[in-house]
């Protein structure tokens, strides 16, 4: 029997083989289709229960199977699993299209939606109906037949163009290499960067060093290389990706993409692509995003200009440079930062033994939200490295299962993320609790050669890894403390520009003395981390924050300029960008460079009309944490308000309403500006 098709509570990892996935996913789709058919063929008139709720609970079997499969494809994959992923992904997207384009199903959803005002629905029920209806309408379900055909044509064209855009950027990145054989040309670079460049040259059967436009090669070169002319060569090459007179030119592709997006938005009844996207975000309208950005810009610009002026003076004093150029910024910033802070990450690591940090984050969760974590060995796991915990509340009631997978290995992708195997929901009167997981890539414990081979040197984290652990654990709390009726509104199922609040706010505890004293203890002596180190960490975190903020805002405003107005009259990308960047410009313009032709976030990734959300989430987290600072970082009253209005509510109400109920007012950027030293 296929273990994935049995009834199970927690995933039966040890019983699953790769052969089980395809038949299970196929069967899961069949079951889900039958559930949809049952809704469509129901002879009773459409009601909230027999249509809206039935649709939300459909596909449960399939979701359980695919969550196991795709989570393992990220955390414990192999060639075979990756091959299966290529095969099953089209099945799943076809199934998803079958639902959104199912006219009979949409007709039932629309009937319930149109009767909404007479149904006496709760806020959560109303939100479910609203989201469900929009998921059809925003994909063209309301359009006339020929307009639907047009929409599909636009979507197919857009997906081809964004693929082509990405292929061109990759081709341009790969086409450039800088081959150096003179040792003087690599002066200033750290050994690790030189080793890597040597390795690239060796692979190409060349002597010396080869530097490329890949970030691990490009960033260190611009940050450390003493040779200014070579930094210039690298920077200009990076800035003209997709903007050269060759087969990889992206100019026309950019114009085609923005015009097709505009056409699509108009077809669906929206003024611009930004109006379409933002309707489903916390920001709601392009005007709100532009006001938000300009407000931050007004505060950050004076600081950025001052920082830039100081950096220019520093470069002049050091090397007699009169005019700071784009290829000088990272180089002189790094030198100045080292001079000012002299902070060595290696000194900090002994205070951050992984086990202590885990214990610390659990203690903080206990003091804030009354959660208890007990390691258990009674549930199945997919790798021996994975730790499993039973999470309970103050009264000993079961809250969640928690999986934690901390160390890198072959078959695990880079980075860190939170995910879940089962969302919380209330079904047939039973509150089904979630199963949440975090996956990270922290240094493994090492066998120390100078001692008895059985003794190990524990996993010691960099400070950056500590904040990463807290960040992912913040997402995990959002999943664990979920308490909603419908799983599609549960936990982290919230709008794009709100989801980072629980994760980013938790990082703040890493900088507070009261919290650090709980876990930042030297792994050999037990000594608590000296506060002078913590102060240095805090100070260096806001170094050149004005310039950083200006840079982030410039990208977000460029995104809005492309997508928040009718782009049909734009002919020259270079001229368009010069106008868009006028208010955020620090460095002199470089004639042969533009940004848009390689701005993959908005032309290839999912960030079109959404780049602002990086800064938006920072404003929320700084404003929210300021409330804790006012009342005490372990204040029960504030923590309970955060738990009840943010962590447990998922996407059941508009995020701004939830935020205001927690904070008592709308978020203001002042807390972020203060934290960044910009006030």
- The name CATH uses for the topology of the domain at 348-541 is Neurolysin, domain 3
User: In what order do the strands lie side by side in the largest sheet?
Assistant: 3-4-5-9-6
Helix fraction, binned, reads 55-70%
Q: By helix and strand content, what is the structural category? A: alpha+beta
Largest sheet: 5 strands, mixed
Write up what this structure looks like.
With 679 residues, the chain is an alpha+beta fold. Among the domains are: 3-142, Endopeptidase. Chain P, domain 1 (Glutathione S-transferase Yfyf (Class Pi), Chain A, domain 2, Up-down Bundle); 176-239, no CATH class; 348-541, Neurolysin, domain 3 (Orthogonal Bundle). It has 27 helices and 11 strands. The chain has helices at 18-40, 48-57, 60-75, 79-100, 103-114, 123-137, 145-175, 191-203, 215-224, 228-239, 251-267, 273-278, 286-319, 329-341, 345-348, 354-369, 463-480, 501-507, 513-519, 531-541, 545-563, 573-580, 600-603, 613-631, 636-647, 655-663, 670-675; strands spanning 177-180, 209-212, 372-375, 387-392, 398-405, 417-422, 425-427, 430-432, 435-439, 446-447, 456-457. Strands 3-4-5-9-6 form a 5-stranded mixed beta sheet. A two-stranded antiparallel sheet has the order 1-2. Helix 1 runs antiparallel to helix 3 and helix 16 crosses helix 19 (513-519). The longest helix is centred in the middle third of the chain and has 34 residues, at 286-319.
């Amino acid at each position: 029997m296929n273990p994935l098709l049995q009834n199970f509570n927690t995933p039966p990892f040890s019983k699953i083989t790769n052969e089980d996935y395809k038949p299970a996913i196929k069967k899961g789709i069949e079951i889900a289709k039958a559930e949809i058919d049952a809704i469509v063929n129901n002879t009773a008139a459409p009601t909230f229960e027999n249509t809206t709720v039935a649709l939300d609970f459909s596909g449960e079997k399939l979701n359980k199977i695919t969550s196991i499969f795709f989570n393992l494809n990220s955390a414990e994959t192999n060639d075979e699993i990756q091959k299966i992923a290529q095969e099953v992904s089209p099945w799943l997207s076809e199934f998803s299209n079958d639902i959104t384009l199912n006219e009979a199903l949409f007709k039932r959803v629309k009937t319930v939606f149109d009767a909404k005002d007479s149904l006496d629905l709760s806020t959560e029920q109303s939100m479910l109906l609203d989201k469900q209806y929009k998921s059809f309408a925003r994909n063209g379900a309301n359009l006339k037949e020929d307009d639907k055909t047009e929409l599909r044509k636009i979507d197919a064209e857009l997906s081809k163009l964004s693929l082509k855009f990405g292929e061109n950027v990759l081709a341009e990145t790969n086409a450039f290499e800088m081959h150096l054989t003179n040792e003087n040309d690599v002066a200033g670079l750290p050994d690790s960067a030189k080793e890597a460049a040597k390795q690239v040259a060796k692979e190409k059967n060349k002597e010396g060093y080869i530097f490329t436009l890949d970030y691990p090669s490009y960033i260190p070169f611009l940050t450390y290389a003493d040779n200014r002319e070579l930094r210039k060569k690298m920077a200009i090459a990076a800035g003209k990706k997709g903007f050269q007179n060759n087969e990889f030119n992206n100019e026309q592709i950019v114009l085609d993409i923005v015009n097709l997006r505009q056409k699509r938005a108009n077809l669906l009844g929206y003024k611009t692509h930004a109006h379409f996207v933002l309707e489903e975000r916390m920001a709601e309208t392009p005007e709100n995003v532009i006001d938000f950005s300009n407000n931050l810009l007004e505060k950050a610009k004076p600081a950025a200009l001052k920082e830039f002026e100081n950096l220019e003076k520093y470069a002049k004093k050091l090397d007699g440079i009169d005019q700071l150029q784009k290829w000088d910024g990272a180089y002189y910033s790094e030198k100045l930062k080292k001079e000012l802070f002299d902070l060595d990450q290696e000194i900090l690591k002994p205070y951050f033994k992984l086990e202590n940090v885990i214990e610390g984050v659990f203690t903080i969760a206990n003091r804030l939200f009354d959660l208890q974590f007990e390691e258990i060995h009674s549930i199945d796991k997919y790798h021996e490295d994975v730790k499993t915990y039973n999470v309970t509340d103050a009264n000993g009631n079961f809250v969640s299962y928690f999986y934690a997978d901390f160390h890198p290995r072959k078959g695990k992708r880079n980075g860190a993320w939170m995910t879940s195997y089962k969302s919380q929901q209330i079904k047939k009167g039973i509150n089904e609790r979630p199963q949440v997981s975090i996956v990270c890539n922290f240094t493994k414990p090492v066998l120390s050669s100078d001692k008895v081979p059985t003794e190990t040197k524990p996993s010691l984290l960099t400070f950056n890894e500590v904040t990463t652990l807290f960040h992912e654990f913040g997402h995990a709390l959002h999943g664990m403390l979920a308490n909603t009726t419908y799983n599609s509104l549960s936990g982290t199922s919230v709008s794009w520009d709100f989801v980072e609040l629980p994760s980013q706010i938790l990082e703040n505890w890493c900088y507070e003395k009261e919290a650090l004293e709980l876990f930042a203890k030297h792994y050999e002596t037990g000594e608590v981390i000296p506060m002078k180190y913590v102060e240095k960490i805090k100070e260096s975190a806001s170094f050149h924050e004005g310039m950083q903020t200006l840079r982030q805002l410039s990208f977000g405003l460029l995104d809005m300029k492309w997508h928040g107005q009718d782009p049909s009259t734009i002919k020259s990308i270079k001229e368009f960008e010069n106008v868009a960047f006028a208010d955020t410009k620090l460095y002199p313009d470089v004639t042969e460079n533009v940004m848009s032709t390689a701005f993959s976030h908005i032309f290839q990734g999912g960030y079109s009309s959404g780049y602002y959300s990086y800064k938006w989430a920072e404003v929320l987290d700084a404003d929210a944490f300021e409330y804790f600072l006012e009342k005490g970082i372990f204040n029960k009253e504030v923590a309970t308000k955060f738990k009840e209005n943010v962590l447990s509510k998922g996407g059941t109400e508009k995020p701004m309403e939830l935020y205001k109920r927690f904070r008592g007012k709308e978020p203001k950027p002042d807390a972020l500006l203060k934290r960044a030293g910009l006030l």
